[in-house]
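During data preparation, we tokenized the protein backbone, and the record follows.
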Amino acid sequence: MQPQSIPASALDTWRKQVIYLLLPDRFANGNTANDNLGQPNCYDPANPTKFHGGDLAGLRQKLAYISGLGATTVWTTPLYKQTLINSGAAANYGNCGYHGYWADFNQAGTADVEPKLGTSADVQGLMTDIHNSGMKYLMDMVVNHSGYGAQIVSQQPSWFHASCDPNVDPVNCPLAGLPDFRQENSAVASYLTTLSKTWVSTYAIDGIRMDTVKHVPTSYWQTSWIPGVLASRPGMFLLGEVFQTGNAAQLKPYLDAGFDSTFNFPLRQAFVNSLGQGGSLDSLAAAMQDTIGTLGLDRTLLQVNLLDNHDVQRFLNEPGPGAAEGVIRTRYHLAMGALMTLPGIPQLYYGDELGMYGGPDPDNRHDMPAWAWTDTGRSAAQTNFLAGGGTPKTTFDDVKNLIAVRQGNEALWKGSYAELWRPNGGQSMFAFYRGSGTSRMVVALNSSASAANVALDIQGNAGISASDKAAITNGSTFSNLVAGAPGTATVSGGKLNVSVPAGTLAIYRLNSSASTVNVTFKATASTSLGQNLYLSGDRAELGSWNTASAIPMTSSNCSGSTCTWTASVALPPSVTAQFKFIKKPGDSGASVTWEGGSNRTYTAPASGTGSYTGTWQP
């Protein structure tokens, strides 16, 4: 087993990352002058297998969009100069290497940048801009194969394996007919490692995403490539693509060889089975437990979790054409919520944040639309983007909020993990606990068609630490940070009692007695028989203006139909909240009636307790 390549001091930095994958050619065109450089006859925006004009100049112009979403690491597909269009097998004629994986390697081992994407100076500028934005850059590399008809193939024909079936021998047989390097040959190993070292020495990258890792001998990674690149740039984050969907044991050999991380494709398959295709959340719970049990928590926290990428159809296409868009939106919200709260580093694929549809390659590689960059553009319904009661802005705002919740709560990016509830063949409800220091969270997902009312055992769970249990006592309250489920949940009898509506995500954070003040809200209001008063406001503790999550109030001192209604809410010290009182059910057959007038405003005290008293505004 090799030690992790990143130093211990950088572990938390990488655990907290949110990775954003994009194909530069499909993201933004910032320099039309390079559209027709490089390979001839390869620029055709109407052809899904040719270059569309996106480049590094365009990416540099849109970095604020990525950082504004909350993503912190940019991963681009490879920047290598690509091979000619009409090389290789006849079946590939008419295709071009817009994706970056058909590198035109040469015997000199020069780090040539694809001209349609830009120049070496553009790459250097991109590194500077990314780092000035407070983000990191993950460079995509390939050593398994060259592009069809690459210069190196004719220059060193003995460096490549003969044609055979990769399904029988995935290491020594060419993948998709691509010239397959013989890494067992010391000269080949030295050439490939030196080429990677040239790239990492030239550009100030922060990590490497290595393509097709399982198709290369593990010994090569362990003895040549990993020590080689780390000697040239110590401390890089090394992420391997091991496309295995069975279980975490299939990933472990590559971590043992020295990679810091692999993509958790087994977990992604569970996302597809449970939420994409409407199965039970048992599969998601089981895959997460398998990862933790096989790899341990420390390694799991560095695994990269994903819903989709450029090699699979987009997650939104998994439900199939028969699924209603409202159902798809519900499942997508649940999946994104789980992606941002389960142990591991979340990876987004460009367009995920907009609800972009896309089938198998190349349909999953559409251009980023021109309207994507502004709230105004995202606010209109768009073809080929998720609707279901919302617009691309709805999806964007949801993803942005979930990223913020993750990054604002330490437990979600570095905390322990303990399963609290799984369906076990019953109602599709999954809940888990995350804890780190004083940050303590409970996440619950209900993908079933009815509300789930469950008591989550905190004190009896062996996976929760003694210190965490000591902090979560009877009467402790948790506040929900996302709209949908009730705003608060309370511990009673050592269990957290939660009520999660159908198709709803809840992310509960423990209210620390040291970090909240208890505020009593009172309102005098007249109600009809069966009506109740609720409190709804702009903070998560007040339901985030979602009437379904409004805080119920208790009536007292009634005189006829007029009562004093009371609710106690734990708020952070000194925060200012806007709120109103509402009636449910509403007047005259409405589901809800809001009081009139302007929003009420209240600032919580810095310590102690607080109170607010008001009268219903007609």
Remarks:
- Residues 282-300 form the longest helix (19 residues).
- The CA atoms of residues 60 and 125 lie 8 Å apart.
- The chain has a mean pLDDT of 94.
- DSSP finds 15 helices and 25 strands in the chain.
